[in-house]
């Protein structure tokens, strides 16, 4: 409690020092999910005037399927603040929430909102319409037309705009095909025939949820066999040896997990090797607590979809073995492809000046892009710093690295 009180006092002091009347602020953080909220907490604690834009935990609350459970272990589900005072356990104690593992997404959303409330109300819920470079600073236009200027901008807007939708489904209407990150209520599919495409956590857990609400479900996956995370539990119960093989974040297989836990070290690994590690660490797989929930779900592996056609109120799928499926809906659990050009708030001129790594920004220390003063954290940083940045567990490294760099370099961009 002493640490929490001291951190709140520091935040209040920073707000008194900087106020809100200046026409130019130090840092704008675009996005109020785990990365944006954590970055804001670290920057404020270092005396930097920062404004976080967005609705707290909006993507998690409105776009992820209701009833989902977090794949990450509890220890890797904490947002980051400088004193490590506002943890998941602190939230549960303060709100008398019963601890749960795995963690329900609804609890995680409430935790994120509580985290923001503890660290100060200086959150701007308005959407950012446009970010433009203006001399040595940035001009930000908000949804109501107000224009603000910032010395630095941190993009922490997550993966909402990066949904991967296979082209074979592009001609189907939204009533017959959707991505699992679109926020559709799964309850509307009760009693319906649904094919889920994919073999990762989102696809498999969506299939389980659909079955549990009374849908007739089939999973169609290209890989020959479904994979399950952590099925070799004995590897996690070998004392010091297990600690050498796995980090607390539990991202990636034995050995690779330890490397992934060190994003700074990952940034020095050659890109080709870094990509192999990244792909291996996050290949499609489901949590080990899912198989019992899928025993009555039809699992079709080693098959792809050749054609998808709309036939009135139903869709017809033709698989690559010639068999057909007539269904009411196709749910794509097909992940996402990072492509920062899809961020509509970034001006075309700004995007043109950002060096890319196949859709990802090329970043150096401090999460700096090739545009001075423009930083990217979260999933967009994963190709530069490794796959830990895809997960909530990466908020600690990202926030500390970002805030330390800005303090060292100064808020004024040179």
Q: Please, could you describe this protein's structure?
A:
- The protein is globular, with a radius of gyration of 22 Å.
- Helix content is 29%, strand content 21%.
- Strands 1, 2, 3, 4, 5, 6 and 19 form a seven-stranded mixed β-sheet that branches. A five-stranded parallel β-sheet has the order 7-16-8-9-12, with helices on one face. Strands 13-14-15 form a three-stranded antiparallel β-sheet, with no helix packed on it.
- The protein has helices at residues 2-18, 34-45, 58-62, 88-95, 105-118, 201-212, 240-245, 256-260, 263-266, 271-281, 348-352, 382-385, 395-409, and strands at residues 24-30, 50-53, 123-124, 128-134, 137-142, 147-155, 177-179, 193-197, 216-221, 228-229, 286-287, 298-301, 305-311, 314-319, 324-327, 329-332, 356-357, 360-361, 374-376.
- Helix 2 (34-45) runs parallel beside helix 13 (395-409).
- It has three domains: 2-161 and 336-409, FAD/NAD(P)-binding domain; 167-227 and 284-332, FAD/NAD(P)-binding domain, CATH 3.50.50.60; 228-281, no CATH class.
- Mean pLDDT is 90; it is low at 6-23.
- Strand 1 (24-30), helix 2 and strand 2 form a beta-alpha-beta unit.
- The protein has 414 residues and is α/β, with parallel strands linked by helices.
- The chain contains 13 helices and 19 strands.
Could you outline the blueprint of secondary structure elements for this entry?
Blueprint: H1 2-18, E1 24-30, H2 34-45, E2 50-53, H3 58-62, H4 88-95, H5 105-118, E3 123-124, E4 128-134, E5 137-142, E6 147-155, E7 177-179, E8 193-197, H6 201-212, E9 216-221, E10 228-229, H7 240-245, H8 256-260, H9 263-266, H10 271-281, E11 286-287, E12 298-301, E13 305-311, E14 314-319, E15 324-327, E16 329-332, H11 348-352, E17 356-357, E18 360-361, E19 374-376, H12 382-385, H13 395-409
Parallel strand pairs: 1-2, 1-6, 2-3, 6-19, 7-16, 8-9, 8-16, 9-12, 10-11
Antiparallel strand pairs: 4-5, 5-6, 13-14, 14-15, 17-18
Helix pairs in contact: 2-13
